[in-house]
Amino acid sequence: MTARRLRASLKGWGGVGAMAVACALAVVFALLLPLSSAHGDGSTGIGGQGVARGTQAKAAECTDPQDQSLSPSSDESGDTITAIKKRGYLSVGVDQNSYRWGYRNPNPKDPKKGSDLEGFDIDLVHEIANQILGDPDRVRFHAIPTNQRIPAIQSGQVDMVVRTMTITCERLDLVAFSAPYFVTGQQVLAPTTSGITGYNKSLAKKKICSAAGSTAHDKLDADQKAGELVSSADISTTVPNQLDCLVRLQLGEVDAVVTDGALAASQAAQDPTVALKGHTFTTEYYGVAMKRGSNDLVRRVNQVLADYLKSGWRTSYDKWLAPTLGADSPSKNPPAAQYK
């Protein structure tokens, strides 16, 4: 399918199902999206050991994963950043199907220029590129499914993933994280007419969808084993991409979706037939994920975040997320950063 035909198929938000086509393509082809002018030798992903010393805490000794990142630094002499600068662009794993986070707008202001990726996470990527490379457009985007975020980093396919990725102790054994840039929590999404009222006994005998490899699925599985989720709830439906759950909900194949509340709010904004049910029942922090050992890049990204959270974060939040999250959202302010 050509890019022109793909854009035509996505025209209008009435077709969230059409967006699933783009999602499926991302899964099958691991689509590379060279949206910006980028120069280099065509290589992707840099692993090297940075000059700055220090390692992130492992799960066995981790209690507050969001506070385990390395202190900020503006030093760009480390191996990882040096290689990125030599290449001339950042290689970044993102989502292209999460409305207002990372999505391809089917109705761009200038159709002649095509439809670039837009959203809260995309704004952050451009800021990182601007501070490290002096140009916000020196980025090559890769559409990465939810369950391929960590493999894409470990294999060197991308330098980093900026894709609503929750910082967890278990993931700190596999990848490095920046300090947090967003706080949210798991929440239930269900049809507006559903009798489901939240993460409670109303989920009895209901089929629940979550993305494979997500913290939502891990929470459902752990709670059911611990007896904190009603045993008759069916949590067997998992999908590669979180958006696939919304499509299955619309088709009546599942009764509810469990995902991050901020993502769920954006999906409810797309489709008025679904709604958030109850309140968030966890507290989670999104971070920029990078390869373990790339300490110079982690520290540099943390310096970018330290600056961004003081100014650009609010502008991006008000543009993309405030209209759907509301004034009482736990996400309305940037999280305070603490370091090892």
Mean pLDDT metric: 85
Number of strands: 16
Counting helices, strands and paired strands, the structural category is alpha/beta
| Elements, N to C (H/E) | HHEHEEEEHEHEHEEEEHEHEHEEEHHH
Which residues form runs of ≥5 with pLDDT under 50?
A: 1-55
- Give the strand order, joined by hyphens, for the main sheet: 1-6-2-7-16-8
Number of helices in the DSSP assignment: 12
What spatial form do the alpha-carbon principal axes imply? globular
Main β sheet profile: 6 strands, mixed
Q: State the end-to-end distance.
A: 47 Å
Helix content: 25-40%
Query: Radius of gyration from the CA trace?
Result: 19 Å
Query: Strand fraction band?
Result: 15-25%
Fold and architecture overview:
This protein has 340 residues and is of the alpha/beta class. It has twelve helices and 16 strands. It has helices spanning 3-9, 16-29, 79-87, 120-133, 149-154, 169-172, 215-226, 242-250, 261-270, 295-308, 312-320, 322-325, and strands spanning 32-33, 90-94, 97-98, 102-104, 117-118, 139-143, 160-161, 176-177, 182-184, 186-191, 207-211, 234-239, 256-260, 274-277, 284-286, 289-290. A six-stranded mixed β-sheet has the order 1-6-2-7-16-8. It has a five-stranded mixed β-sheet with strand order 12-11-13-10-14, sandwiched between helices. Helix 2 runs antiparallel to helix 8 and helix 4 packs across helix 10 (295-308). The protein is globular. The protein starts with a helix and ends in a 15-residue tail after the last helix. Mean pLDDT is 85; it is low at 1-55.
